[in-house]
Amino acid sequence: MKRTGPLIVLVLVLVVVGAVAGHLLGRGAGPGGGDVKQLTAIVGSEKQPFFDDPAVKAALARHGWAVRADASGSRQMVTRTAGYDFAFPSSKAAAEEVRRHADPKGENVVVFSSPLAVATFQPIVDLLGSAKLAERDSARVWRLNLKALVDANRRSLKWTDIPGNTTRPVAQNVLVATTRPQDSNSAAMFAALLDEVTGGDLGAVAKLFTDQGAVDTTSEEPFESYLRRGTDFAPMVLIYEAQFVDHAVNQGLADGQTVLYPTPTLTCEHTIVPLSPDGVTVAKLLASDRELQRLAAQHGFRTADSTLTAPIFAKVRPADAALPDSIAGAVPDPDYDTQHSLLAKLEEKMA
User: Fold this and answer.
1) In the chain, count of helices (H) and strands (E)?
2) CA torsion, points 13, 18, 23, 29, in degrees to nearest 10?
3) Range(s) for CATH 3.40.190.10 in the chain?
4) Residue 136 is inside which H or E element, if any?
5) According to CATH, what is the number of the domain 115-267+323-350?
6) What's phi and psi for 63, nearest 5 deg?
7) CA–CA separation, 344 vs 83, rounded Å?
8) Distance from first CA to last CA of the chain, Å, rounded?
9) DSSP 3-state of 26
10) H or E, element range at 147
11) Rounded CA gap, 69 and 87, in Å?
12) Using CB atoms within 10 A of its CB, is residue 113 exposed (0-12), middle (13-18) or buried (19+)?
């Protein structure tokens, strides 16, 4: 006859031990030695390095929180918010769109900001300067003239058409590589700038996107291609300034890597939409905690407290250019209704 009693006891002991171990593994160093509570967030891809940073994780843990961040194009979040504690797109307009399609549990919270910029290379900047498409201002900041760029694209200016061009003798249109406006906030905001400088000529705006052919859906993808492949990928890539500063500060710039600022430009306010009560708490923490704001500056974002940003930005020396101390004369971040209408009309033109 089999003796099952000891076996049953052993199984029960293993179950209890497993449960205790699982509980202990789920605990962390929260306030006063308490539990660390896990949250999930869907965030713009350019913010993934911030949430992956061990220092950010440690700062959150000291307040009792852990955040798992999943990257997404800001404009793709609308249909992907189920199960998340907060959504963190890259502008007020994108946040408002998420809010209108989700079940928010609190007010939207602006955490930090970043202007649009263009990642490029010093020889390309010099070439753009000779073509009267870019110039360096009195503060040594390189500016890309968007009106001149649109006019050049209207006449299908190619790199080989620029007199004396030995830098990029390629018969391709002079373009900024972007993401798709319907998927990604950076491209949607770029469309708003182009709409501004063309006086609403959506045909001209659409051409600057369709001439690129197939594009990526998140802002991090083309920036990574810029870093890996250089001008073999594209001579100019639309980014958030934060991406360039983050890479410069935390990995270092390669020779010739530099940055242009569109004129006019637009500052994107990265905004959280809380989707749970815990999401409300963490949104406020990210926006108000000085250490988390300092770490945001370390990853290239502009914070409300410029004393946190200035020491970080002072370390960045992109070729012979400078970073602007502040973003003056920016076009206002478009509201949801304006942006939604523009993108709907633009999609028709791009079809």
Assistant:
1) 14, 9
2) 110
3) 35-113+269-312, 115-267+323-350
4) strand 134-136
5) 3.40.190.10
6) -100, 5
7) 28
8) 78
9) coil
10) helix 146-154
11) 9
12) buried
CATH superfamily membership of 35-113+269-312: Periplasmic binding protein-like II (3.40.190.10)
How far apart, in whole angstroms, are the C-alpha atoms of residue 246 and residue 139?
22
Is there a contact between 114 and 241 (Cβ–Cβ < 8 Å)? yes
Q: Tell me the H-state helices in 82-137.
A: 92-101, 122-130
**Distance between CA 76 and CA 217 in Å, rounded?**
9
Q: Are 89 and 101 in contact (CB under 8 A)?
A: no
User: Do 191 and 235 form a contact (C-beta atoms < 8 A)?
Assistant: no
Distance CA 31, CA 141 (A): 44
pLDDT one-digit tens code per residue, 211-265: 999 899 889 999 999 999 999 999 999 999 999 999 999 999 998 999 999 999 8
What share of the chain in percent tops pLDDT 90? 78
Residue 140 class from Cβ within 10 Å (0-12 exposed, 13-18 middle, 19+ buried)?
exposed
pTM of this prediction exceeds 0.85:
yes
Q: Identify the CA nearest to 143 among candidates 6, 322, 339.
A: 322
Other Cβ atoms less than 10 A from the Cβ of 269: the count is 18
15: exposed, middle or buried (Cβ count in 10 Å: 0-12, 13-18, 19+): exposed
Distance CA 8, CA 146 (A): 75
pLDDT at 22 over 70: no
- Spatial CA neighbour of 142 closest among 331, 350, 344, 321: 321
Structure tokens, 106:
């609190």
Tokens 């492949």 map to which residue?
229
247: exposed, middle or buried (Cβ count in 10 Å: 0-12, 13-18, 19+):
buried
Q: In DSSP terms, which residues pair with 115 in a beta bridge? A: 267
Q: Output the CA torsion 287→292→294→298 (10° steps).
A: -110
